[in-house]
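Database export, one record per block. Field names are fixed; values are copied verbatim from the stored entry.
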Amino acid sequence: MTRRDFHFVFGLREQREPFHLLHYLCLASCRAVNRPDAMHFHFRHEPFGPWWEKIKPALRLHTVAHRVDGFEPGRYADSAEGRLVERLGLAYAHEADFLRMDVLLEHGGAYADMDTLFVREYPDAWFDEEFAIGEENAPQTPGQLIRPSLCNAVVLARPGSRFAAHWRERMAATFDGSWSRHSCAEAARAWERMPDALRVLPREYFYRYGSSIAGLRTLLEESDTAREDLYSMHLWAHLWWSAERTDFSTVHAGQIDEHWIRTRDCTLANLARRFLE
């Protein structure tokens, strides 16, 4: 029988704020919707706070090393984009890109980012795939061709997956400090090279609400209708989490508490509310 193990990576940098409600809801929704055999929580610095204490007993805790092979933060200095990533304090997200592949190669199962809300049970068939990943809307750069992109916010794999091993090797070679050259863009290139080694799932399953002003407005400010093909939602938290980041949404993490989830009429609150019980 297929094991339904889920993996999460968090706390790669020192924790200065209590574990956020949205992070609790990620784990609580996974437990309620997917009925995992185990939820593995990989961390360097343990979270704290009431929401953490509430969900901690449901997790299997694993500490991670202080250095991850292939992740070279010195490369941020080589480009303006890399320097911006470092200035915004987002390097932990790149380190997690490498860690998720290491975890899946060794243990298999499903990996999901902590800014995920689970809506519908992931089918057993996805866990039987050697490697499965969802397509996302391709980033558009003026004057450049639009290329496919595979988002690594949700990944399922069997231990030793050929695609995961190839991608992990290429990540170390291509990491240049930019946001997604080594991750989503490199996965799409690997898809062209070895299409028989993975299953690509439709964008609507995980990324219906994209990393755009319109997508985040639908998530955080407006209410969408029920979607039968929505299995989980990626929240793109790095684009709006900080109160200073207003280019995508005026909503920020400091506003979102239990009252906000219970009373707000928007897609995120309406789908997350049931996991507070």
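Remark 1: The beta strands are 5-10, 38-43, 60-63, 109-112, 116-118, 131-136, 149-157, 199-201, 232-234.
Remark 2: The chain has eleven helices and nine strands.
End of record.
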